[in-house]
Amino acid sequence: MTAHPATDRLLPSRPSRPSPAGQARGGSARSGSAGLSVRARPVVRAVFGVLLVLWILVPLVPLALWSVADRWQAPAVLPNAYSLDAFAVLGAPGTLSAAASSLLLGSAVAIIATPLGLMGALAARALPGRYGRAVDLILLLPLAVPPFALVMGANITLLRLYVPPFAGVVLLLVVIALPYTAFMFRSALATYEQRFEDVALTLGADPRQVLRHVRMPLLSAATVRAFFLAFLVGWGDYITTLLVGGGQLTTLPMLLGSAASSTGNEQLVAVLSLAVIVPPAFILAAVTLPAVITTRAAALTRKAHP
Amino acid sequence: MSSRLEARNISRSFGSTEVLHAVSLTVPASGCVALLGASGSGKSTLLRIIAGLDAPSGGQVLVDGEDLALVPVERRGMALVFQKALLFPHLNVIDNVAFAARMAGSSRKQARAEAMEYLELVHLADYAHRPVGRLSGGQEHRVALARALARNPGILLLDEPLASLDVQLRHTMYELIGDIRAQLAPTIVVVTHDRQEASILADTIAVLDDGRILQHGSVHQVHYQPATRTVNELLGGLNTIPGIVLDGRHHSVLGSLPVQTGAEDGPSDLMVRQEALTLLPTERLMETLPERLGEELTEGRAEGRIDGPDSRTVTSGHATIKGCVSSLTSLGARTLVRVLVTGGSQNIGEVEEPEVMITVDVPGHPALLSGQVITVGLQDQQAWAVPAE
Amino acid sequence: MHHRAAPRAALSAGRARSVLLAIPAVVPVVLVIGVSIAGAAAQSLGLMPFIGAPVLSTQAWAGSAGDLGRSVLVSVYIAVVSTVLSLIVGFLIAVYVLAAPRMGRVVAALSAATIPVPHLIGAGAMGLLLSDSGFLDRVFGMPPGFPSLVGGPWFGAVIVEYAWKESAFVALVLIGSMARSVTGMCDAAATLGATAWQRIVHIVLPLSRPALAVSALIVVVYTFGSYEAAWLLGPTSPEPVSVRAVRLFGSVDLAARPEAMATALVSLAAGVVAILAGLVVLRGSRGLR
After folding, report:
1. By CB atoms within 10 Å of each CB, which of A116, A243, C64, C94 scores lowest?
2. Model confidence pLDDT, tens digit, residues C135-153
């Protein structure tokens, strides 16, 4: 698909729009350009693919290099010396407690925002026309509000009501995470096959059994995705913790933020960044890979036994 | 275990559109009724109401005389198989079949043991522990059937269960359903748009159109004695000839033909199935029926007497119609021959159309040319008149 | 739900249950946003001071209208440029993923894997990559007159960070919305004689317009109000709204707080206006669906 602009460049004489006669001749009209394009196509495509991979991965390269760099003086392209010393900070009590706070925050947000998102999505689906759309709109509303603005406005009320900082941060992050969880369930419900429940009913399952044995398993994939997204909102949050926590709540992103805002902390920034992004990446892989493997296996077996 | 099912004056409206108009239907215990209709005729709605998945706006569903209005779906003792197999994707084959037993509180082990018997019934015991994503379309439908049967239903409801299968698989499924009827004898209601499927599976066919049951009768009745023109068309009848009934004979372009006893006098449509017509070689006809038909043929007129099957030989039982071949359409092993019949001058009553096209379904591929004059024979007692709509 | 004898009674019972179901999700959202707007408005007018007696004052609005306006313009600039770049790169990624069978899967997986990376980490990584003695400078050696990307006047590093993160988001949305339909359509177009380029322009682009529009809306509002990258990678002046508001909010001068609130309210209003305008445009162009 992506090869053709290049093919056109290689063949300046070729009219940009094929003439009707050329179209009618079809095969013979093509064979001239096809000879080149068939050869050029994989090359252009591969170059393009490499560029995209570079775009995605290059920003993470200095992060990885800095995390294992012992010394890396200015003009050197690669570190002068390597060591894993910087990783020692991960074992420090301050880092561990910050990690625990992040974990707690992410879990609390996910545990609350996931069922709320499901309830909201179910209600939006069940309510007729205008009311359903209103619920949809309200659940998406937090996307329109910049988090810093939301937090600043609510902060003084939280203080006056003596809401503990952790609870305040969780409350605000649940509101911020709700659009994501609700959207996950909304799109899952849009393709949800209602007749699975009908079948279960005719097979003698009562409504509670339908919920437990049909609806919940069928929505489990969406639940995992919603939970993961909500967890990330809490796990990686910086601005809400900064403004509401007021320094009392120290999470991994808080440590990272203070390290990154001053110069000369490259190793620390790199190691803390990895500490923030690697655990969710593992979870993501754990969640998605089994599904990929089973579908692959299924495809292979189907091929083997037609 | 099988139950008698009765639907009484079932109506159902969605908003201001009424999709079922006071439909009544009775299915005897262990009987099999096909609800035949085009899409949008309301047949699936009726099935959902019987199952309890939808509530009627009026009317009752009775099983063995008991009104089910307050009985929820899961306690109606019916099982419904949809067009899509709808196997639960999170359960493997055996656990799908064991679902009903599990819901009823059986232990996993016992439910699976029972399920295995039903899998054997549908010849899929070897597939018990496969994930459902790894079954072919035909296997999926057999599992869906086994899952429904494992609920031990008094009434089995089938909603276009085979529509997505190819012809060969469908015929295997027909045999399977036949076996199941012989072994378990559940009462069956099958919804379909395929008259052949309805004929193969069911004892009787209820023809549904626009929310009304037009006719409920045996397979033979709905085909050869349709209640209305629409029933004839829905069952694939291609010949509807307008005319008039006077004293037990129908008069039309085709001439005067005896019709069923009890046909009312007045403007009527004659329904003749294309399968009931044959092409007669002229020479043979002249040989066997020289004295009566010779003169009629010269007039281009058709006549037949229908007194009773015993009164003449098979060949002499044909009424004959003369016309010229208009076109041939191959059906594979059979051929549809369209014959143009032009009316003569001796019509009795008012015949509106001076000519009419009739279709004859013949075996093989007859060597006929367009425009060729041929004689069409009508088998015994197969003329059926219905008052014009 | 299905098996009630009287459909109407069942319907209203079902509706009541749906309303009950909606409450736990809807109430916190409405409450927090409502409290937040009211609190910001009251504080911006001096009616809810951190310390001391409330005094109505429009000083926070009138006194710094010029600075506030400049911040809004800066944020709009960052948001628009980042969004356009994100859409272009995201579209390219999506087209590649849909067109290249094996390598496309790798690109899709890598791209999706960056979604969980918080912007704070993205900003930190971009700092290590793009700063004056950063990785790219060491590899290629930037020309001397080249404006610095980190802390430079054009917010180069900020925009690159947003484009990097958000293009992955755009690609995810596009791939999700097109994966099924587009392959078959492209095959059909190819049999009708469309070249690869024609297929992209006449099939893929029109089919992806609804998804592009929705993701553009989300990205523009997000980048307008996002803080971390603008704070870490932007210059000290001019300030985007988020950086200005957070600086004023954390200022030791308590008088700065009403100004912070005014900034927050303006940002919030801008976000809502952008979303509403976007929805009106989306609804107006029915053909997009």
Report:
1. C64
2. 888 888 777 777 788 888 8
